[in-house]
Design brief:
heterodimer; A: Rossmann fold; 19% strand; B: alpha/beta; TIM Barrel; five-stranded parallel beta sheet
Chain lengths: 135, 537
């Protein structure tokens, strides 16, 4: 039986309108065979989690370039917990300084991809994470 | 080129615009060029060489670093510092809540107050930001779009309170909403009412503040979102034409308001391609305005611009290299005949500039114009076989791209349906792939990379305490204002927003009694609704 493709929600939380990276990664993951949904801009954490649950996605990719990645991610992880949707893999991309990696990982973020990360690296990471039995 | 003479392998060079570059250019490449028709002297139609006769010999480009953070008090200090250091204009960065029409106490603003720019809730903040700064002598650019009408209103009221007559107010507002739908993303209202608001500001300023530039059309952010240099200019011009067409319907003539249009374009990528791009753009704009709009006043035909050393060219890796990139961008800018220059600072791949980084950018421009002789003579590259040939080819490509937009039903339709957005994002994807494959070299990123590099740079730190301070300030202003008058003016604005009347006087009334950006936006949103983003990538 053919497996369903990995379903990814690329999300732009908050007010930051820099969506070049989000769209480019969405494009790349689609080309890598995944089903990709893009939330569009100015999403609240509640809206993102709602979409993720409604669409039954495997992965949420948060794209944040404003510098507000810690408070936003913290809120999102909390909300996923409330929705009992912790099985969704959360990855974060954008302008994320190395010094914040530990903090984000501590919040439950699976992968962090700084601007300029290679497409294959992101796609392979997602495939390995989802196909490697993380359920 | 005679290939048989040499066995040397010469690989193709193709610019981002798709133009193939020859290894050698000769007089034959510009044999068709007629000096008077195609190039001409600076200050003469078609202004290829520059819009003024003596350019920087008469007046150096304005140096206008984009700045602003935290509260108006902090920003006022930074403004004064930059002016003391020789900066000749201001360029205000607003935080995202201000750009999105949210007050600093709005739950949606959490974590963003004062983060990427100055927070403005009410007129009190703008008064504070410009305290002891002479508005009639320092020209100020407001980087604001969907809430531009409100911020322009505040700026005008501050000027009035400083005793500056309306007709003496100088400066520029970005006020370009169509590009916000394509890139940058600080849109609020749907397309039509947003354009109407821009029309209101243009009409108001034309009639009352004639020295003010009410709109600066930004190819810049379209390019930053992934567009190639041809698309940057073509989409920018198509947008400018949409605003002109709108305002013409109000009974103004082209020569009434187009002299006060300005542009904001981007510099990164191939050195010569950028220079030729600006020369081509200047010539094409002059032709469009003269031939398509029958303008009579040469000032309508001159493309005034700020050229920004683009963040898109800067790298996270080996960030000090960005200082060097900035210097080359500044050189392009000066060789392109820009009126105003701004440079992204070397730390901007990370965050908004530190004080030190902002100063280095300013010094870069000062060194160029005051040490290196860039002001000595106008358009020194004119007549170069390569530059003139490239200028011609780029102009032809821009014309072609504008035609594609027209064939799609015009820029408003093409943006509303997401066509432009998807063209731009396609380019961004292809560009990124070329970087990842090494086809496009980025030093320090895909070549000469240093794994585990040390970065001992002091970055600008966001201070959450400043956000709390801002909320306190808003509460204080709200407590002191006359609530009855505020409500009255907001009610009037709401009523007028449903009509064809120019809203600027009503927005100014709201601003004057300290109605907040959030309150005014909310009223407009109730009437206009919100933009539905086409989710194309």
């Amino acid at each position: 039986m053919p497996q369903r493709p990995i379903k990814v929600l690329i999300a732009k939380p908050g007010l930051d309108g820099h969506d070049r990276g989000a769209k480019v990664v969405a494009h790349a993951l689609r080309n890598a065979g995944m089903e990709v949904i893009y939330t569009g801009l100015h999403q609240t954490v509640e809206q993102i989690v709602q979409t993720a649950v409604d669409e039954d996605v495997d992965v949420i990719g948060l794209s944040i370039l404003s510098g507000a990645h810690i408070p936003i991610t913290e809120k999102l992880m909390g909300r996923l917990g409330e929705e009992e949707a912790e099985d969704i893999t959360v990855i974060v991309g954008g302008n994320i300084p190395k010094r914040d990696f530990e903090r984000l990982e501590g919040l439950g973020v699976f992968g962090i991809f700084q601007t300029g990360s290679r497409f294959e690296e992101i796609a392979d990471f997602i495939k390995k994470t989802r196909e490697g039995g993380h359920e | 080129m005679n290939k048989s003479k040499s066995k040397m392998e010469i690989s193709d060079v193709i610019l981002e615009s798709g133009i193939k570059v020859k290894p050698v250019y000769t007089p034959q490449d510009i044999a068709d060029v007629d000096y008077e028709n195609d190039i001409h002297d600076p200050g003469e139609f078609p202004f290829t060489r520059g819009i003024h006769r003596f350019m920087y010999r008469a007046r150096p480009f304005t140096m206008r670093q984009y700045s602003g953070f935290a509260t108006a008090t902090e920003t006022n200090k930074r403004f004064k510092y930059l002016i003391e250091q020789g900066q000749t204009g201001l360029n205000v960065a607003f935080d995202l809540p201000t750009q999105m029409g949210l007050d600093s106490d709005d739950p949606l603003a959490e974590g963003e107050v004062g983060r990427v720019g100055m927070s403005v809730d009410t007129l009190a903040d703008m008064e504070e930001a410009f305290r002891d700064i002479p508005i009639d002598r320092i020209s100020t650019s407001l980087t604001i779009n969907s809430t531009a009408s409100i911020l322009i209103a505040m700026y005008i009221v501050v000027a009035q309170k400083q005793g500056v007559p309306l007709d003496q107010i100088r400066g520029t507002a970005q006020n370009d909403i169509l590009k916000e739908y394509i890139g940058r993303g600080t849109w609020i209202f749907p397309v039509e009412p947003s354009i109407k608001l821009i029309g209101d500001t243009i009409e108001y300023c034309t009639k009352n503040a004639p020295r003010y530039y009410p709109v600066s059309v930004c190819g810049y952010h379209i390019r930053e979102s992934g567009a190639n240099p041809v698309q940057e200019i073509a989409y920018g011009f198509s947008i400018a034409k949409a605003y002109i067409d709108h305002v013409l319907k109000r009974g103004l003539s082209v020569d009434d308001f187009v002299p006060r249009f300005s542009f904001n374009f981007d510099i990164h990528g191939n050195f010569f391609e950028q220079i030729a791009k600006f020369r081509a753009a200047r010539r094409l704009w002059a032709k469009i305005i003269r031939n398509d709009y029958n303008a009579q006043n040469p000032k309508s035909m001159t493309m005034k611009m700020i050229a920004g050393g683009g963040g898109g060219g800067l790298t996270i890796e080996q960030p000090e290299n960005n200082i060097v990139r900035g210097a080359y961008y500044a050189l392009v800018s000066a060789l392109s005949g820009t009126q105003t220059m701004a440079l992204c600072s070397y730390d901007e791949a990370y965050t908004i500039p530190s004080k030190k980084a902002a100063l280095i950018s300013l010094r870069t421009m000062q060194i160029l114009i005051e040490e290196m002789g860039l002001s000595d003579t106008v358009d020194p590259l004119a007549g170069s076989y390569y530059i003139e040939s490239l200028t011609n080819q780029l102009e032809a490509e821009i014309v072609k791209c504008m035609k594609e937009v027209d064939d799609r039903g015009g820029i408003i339709k093409a943006v509303s349906e997401g066509y432009i957005q998807s063209e731009v994002s396609k380019q961004a994807y292809l560009h990124e792939k070329k970087i990842q494959s090494g086809e496009i070299v980025k030093v320090g990123v895909n070549k000469y990379r240093i794994e585990e590099e040390e970065r001992n740079i002091e970055f600008h730190e966001y201070d959450p305490a400043q956000a709390e301070e801002q909320v306190k300030r808003l509460n204080r202003v709200k407590a002191e204002r006359d609530v009855r008058v505020v409500k009255q003016n907001l009610d009037i604005l709401k009523e007028k927003a449903g009509t064809d009347e120019n809203l600027m006087p009503y927005i100014m009334d709201c601003v004057r009694c300290y109605a907040s950006v959030g309150e005014i936006t909310k009223v407009l949103k109730e009437v206009f609704g919100e933009f539905k983003e086409p989710l194309k990538f």
